[in-house]
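Figure-free illustration: sequence to structure, shown twice.
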Amino acid sequence: MSTNRKKSTAARRILAAGAGIATVGALVAALPAGAAQTSGGGGYGQGRYVDVQLLSFNDLHGNLEPPTGSSGRLTQLNPDGTTKTVEGVGGAEYLATHLRQARQGHPYSVTAAAGDMIGASPLVSGLFHDEPTVEALNKLKLDVSSVGNHEFDEGARELARMQNGGCHPVEGCFEEGKTFQGANFPYLAANVTDEKSGRPMLDPYFVWERDGVKIGFIGVTLEGTANIVSAEGIKGLKFGDEVETINKYAKILERKGVKSIVALLHEGGMPASGAYNYDCDTPGAGAGISGPIVDIAKNVTPQVDALVTGHTHQAYACTIPDPSGKPRTVTSAASFGRLYTDTTLTYDRRSKDIVRTAVASANHVVTRDVAPAKDMTDLIGRFKALAAPISNRPVGHISASIENPLPDPKDPAVGIERPLGNLIADAQLEGMAPADKGGAQLALMNPGGVRAPLTYAQSGGEGDGVVTYGEAYTVQPFTNMMTAVDLTGAQLITALQQQVSGANQAAPKILQVSKGFTYTLDLTKTGADRIVVDSVKLNGEAIDPSKTYRVAMNEFLAGGGDGFAVLKDHKNKLVGASDLDLFTAYLGAHSSATTPLAPPATDRITIVK
């Protein structure tokens, strides 16, 4: 490779990115003497400038097998402004191949994740407490990950086992002669501390180093994690402010001589378009994205050179200004292994820092037109064989796919009432309605607990329209215990208002409701006023604020999860079967091969927009 080619990668991108300098010549003059001639780009790592490839992804949620239905699709923005659906994306076998291909020709490559690698996982991973996913991430050569809220689904002790290894404390080892080895990569939890000692429960940061190039990673989960996981599993833990924590450890890393810093943050934003390749820097830096990540990014110290984010399951590669007004890369790779982000960080050996104007980033689709990685295929096959007797059992039949549409930034009405959410709420009401089961009159289901669609097309050899236990498990993987509780009509109305106010005002969480419970949501208004109070009815009769109602909900909601604080004030709780048991029982009772279940109508919430 010639000297001119050697300088092309890092130095040329520095030239191209000099938006505030009038000419290329001026920028060359502004560079340190000899910078272009000693670039480390293109695989030469001993010059002043070195291109470090940062590959990242987030919110895998144990999706080892290719996700199906809407979970296996992406929206692509065409040059003419139209969009098209990209079908058949994701799957650990293909993610592994794409990452391995992306690393080729990049001697300085680090792979990082922004949390929710495990939790809410399909059966092939969830049945084995996500040991298969951690083993898969080891094979993917993941270098570091922050924790997300779902890493706490089974509690802090189980998360520690994911890190350190060892067989499950109750179920033991899943494969004869094999002990779970734990994660080869560090899980970072800088803002998750012991309430008494104040010390992080896991490492707060990690320093990646190669040939003298050092990049520090600080990992945090969202401060509100305690509101969206089971309280029992996180007793004694405190979840701190994301900005304060990142800024604290950035100073510590600087004192240790690490000046290039990336924050791995399990919190995110909502781009104005759901297309994975939408330019969220239109018309200006970060102008096309909203949500919590915007304020966080604007307040995280300029010492941090890039933020890899997650949680919202959105795709973006934006440049949100830091507190000094300088653009800084902020990325997210959707969810379920459908995308990965490739970011080039140009490292200056002299300053030991990232040349911020040279940062380039883009999301790439994990297509299935590449050869699947054999080691990943073998791993999935091992656990599928162990799970098969349970996973392949038919539990019901459907006449068409029953979807779980997520919110659409372009249309606020999309994803409010979901066919699958209605089906699950109906199943919960039926299971908890008998007098000896709780006497429930209505059911409320948290939208985040519905994890995947029910797809009509067969996933194996079961036949189209057949719902297997494994597919039902993928929809309802938490196995939350169901409860029936007393709530007043006034509390019910407050719960509806809390969907769109308080903690949920910026990102509403619309409860899925059982048949017979109806109301109007007015999107032309703001906050609690969006709930038209006199429209709230049960079986056609207006809700009486002073009357007591029996309401079915899972333990997560009954504990005030997802910002529904009023639900904690229930009385006369009766605990029933798990949500998954009620779901599979309902499918079995209401469908057969000759009379499959049709998708329920979405006519319970009237939307004004």
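We now fold a second protein in the same way, so the two outputs can be compared directly.
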Amino acid sequence: MRERQAMYQEITERNASASAQRDQVAAHYDQVRAIFDILNGKKEADLLLRNLNILDVHSETVYQGSILVYDKRIVALNPDETAIKVRQVFDGEGLYAIPGLIDAHVHFDAQLAHPAAFGEAIVPCGTTTIFSECLDFVSAAGAEAVPATAQLFKHHERLPYRVYAFAPGKKTSVEVTDALLKMEPVIGLGELAHLTYSVGNDDDFRKSALGRAKGGFMNTHWGVTTLSDMMLNYMPAIGAFANHDVWKEDDIEKSVRYGLQTQIKFGVGSAEVIKIMLRAIVKRKWPAENFQLCADNISVDRLLTKGHMDWVVSLCAEMGIDPIQAIKMATLYTARAFRMDNKFGSLTPGRFADIVLTDSLSKINPRFVFKDGELVAKDRQMLKHADIDYSGMVKEPVPGLGNLSPAELELLPLEISADGKQAKVYLFDVYGRGHEKFYQEVWVPVRDGKIVPEVGGVTLNRIAVVQRYANGKRHVVNGLFKGVRIDRGAVATFWPAPKAYFVAVGQDSEEMCHCLKQIDAQVGGCVVTENKAVKALLPLDIYGVMANMSLSELVAATRAIDAALEAMGNRNEGEPVVNKLLTLFISLDRFGFMV
């Protein structure tokens, strides 16, 4: 009986598969027939964009022409307008038409904005496609990782940009990675942990095997700055195809030589970092086809004030890269790297009608942005808003610092000099200088038996890294911090990925302790206090990593944090302080400061 049931089930599944295939063939038949009828004037197309200067990324030329769109895709270049029917005509005003820009690597779950709010920031910049990590969200969701990620991606097709995601290669279990690899829009395996794959961690072997079985897209921190020359072979040898972990000329040379598609990133920190890399590409005359452009991590505030891929492409041209090559690094070369250049990356028939109209090729200024042939942004203002409600993902906080005492935050020496006049302490420094100087052990003065927080004659704030849930003695790491400098008060952040730790910066242990307890009452976020009064608060109530806010609300909250800190003496440049502080959690875990 069981054999008959199994046979019946197998036949049923086979019939269902055959039926689905017939439906798919029928849909394709209707589409190819419709395109034929459109080109022969028998059926109406959706859109004709005319009066354009079209960039042909294949021949690297610009020609005057028009683009015909039907069912989200380009179906013709320079159609005979006397022979076609079209529902809508758009005057391109003689602007340059370039393919929609692509971010080759971004942690879209780590920008504090939920996917719809993130789109409000990137799409007006001309970005129509992103390749994204989701590891921070997955890690923060913990036991709910799989259903939470499914909910995060549930309505991804309603977003005004394309998102292709990677299952986590780190910060989560093999089982969770396996489950996510089966989801849409996941296309492969994301970042593996720097410091475990080089020692033969079995979980990394298993995740790598799953990534290879999925189709081979394995994105990596290659670890140029931390691995031996022998181990640098490992990631490309097992099939990793892309690397965004380059910081200087030698890193780029090795990454290119080992056959990796090398992603040049802007990210949180100093703009000088990307300029160093671009200068190296120009100096060494490396072919642009080796490179893609990406943000990695970038705040929505920086997107609004400086731009996204449009800014990075323009910076490439400013640094001496041919403007068309710079555009190709953010379009065709990225699409090819992901084997998707039959879908996007050029303005040619059959590709999605993702089109940006700009008045310059060397300084991208997205006047009009089309995604799937629909006008979604104009003059850096969003026209199509994704109506997606993420409030169902809001969580309740579970505080854990009730018994934290100010004494636990006191700065204690790692070592005292023989004469008792100096103490060795940790110095943390993350802003725009790569990982090599993330932390150091430095000597500081001791006066009247007390440690003086002074390095090279400059007074620094203290930093405390505090475990949220303690089983026994709480794990706390104290040191000095270069980056935020306030005369009074404190600032504290909580980012529960991959572990439940807080960071507090200030001068006074009691104020820092009070500040930590304020943010402990949140799922995640950032708070500024002065005299134990809250001056600014940014709650991240979607699993502790995203704000359930509109873009404008989120930007106002991050700017309020900066304003409160400025009133206390801080002078910030570049990314908002909250984004800078949250990047600390990545390196604190990577370098073993979290248990």
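Summary for the second example: The radius of gyration is 26 Å.
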